[in-house]
Amino acid sequence: MSELEFLTDEKAILEAIKHKNSIMFYWEEIEIPDNVNVEIVERKVKVSGPKGTVEKDFSHVRSVYILREGNKIYVACYARKNRDRKPLRTISSKIKRMIDGVLSWYVYKHKVMFAHFPIRVRVEGRNIVIENFYGRKGKMKVPIYGDQTVVEITLQPGSDVPDEVIIKGPDLEAVSQTSGILQESCKLRGKLKKDPRRFQDGIWRYEILRE
Questions:
Q1: Which of 47, 101, 119, 191 is the most exposed place for a label (fewest CB within 10 A)?
Q2: pTM (predicted TM-score)
Q3: Coil, helix or strand for 147?
């Protein structure tokens, strides 16, 4: 059996991993916790746990195989050079973060800061709406990525002025992307650009933790 024929046979791949007898064939092993369920259909991975469900489609990475046997996931690929193993490491890391996310959520905390105009922040559907930033009359809408991503807004004591914006969920990519766009949306650009050491109005991420 040639290497190319070998790579199309899942049983042969698992057998090679078990006996460690294939040249230029690499894999990473991921253990599945007892309270986590993993479903793999071709290169589509669905991870479910006590904190939710995360799905990812890796079909665009044709060189990598994702297999499950028992309570272990194997991410494997055929690589002639070290650079050919990069997709393997990337997908392995993403699956590990998916498993971690359904066990404990990723939490990004942001501080609402202003010295000039009180910033108004609220959740409207699947968007974060920002008003009165730098005295602007228009609204800025930041999409909330991920179906299970939750956004909480806390107010300053004794007022209706927002104090913190907390973004959390089981999907790290969705949470971090929402957080990044939220912070970038409150930056002045062009002729209005200011020194951030002096002008600190905006919504700034200050803590990342697990919950």
A1: 191
A2: 0.83
A3: coil
CATH number of the domain bearing residue 114: 3.90.930.12
- Tell whether 119 and 204 lie within a shared domain: yes
| pLDDT single digits (tens) 159-204 | 878 889 999 999 999 999 999 999 998 887 666 677 666 677 889 9
How far are the Cα atoms of 31, 84, 90, 156 from residue 61, in angstroms, in the given order? Answer: 22, 11, 10, 47
Strand partners, 97: none
| Structure tokens given for 106 | 């990723």
Listed residues 103, 118, 153: the one ending a domain:
103
Kindly give, in sequence order, each residue whose CB lies less than 8 Å from that of residue 56, ignoring residues fewer than 6 positions away: 44, 45, 94, 95, 98
For the stretch 98-157, pLDDT in tens is: 999 999 999 999 999 888 788 899 999 999 999 988 777 888 999 999 999 999 999 888
- Whole-angstrom Cα distance, residue 211 to residue 207? 12
Range of the domain at 18: 3-103
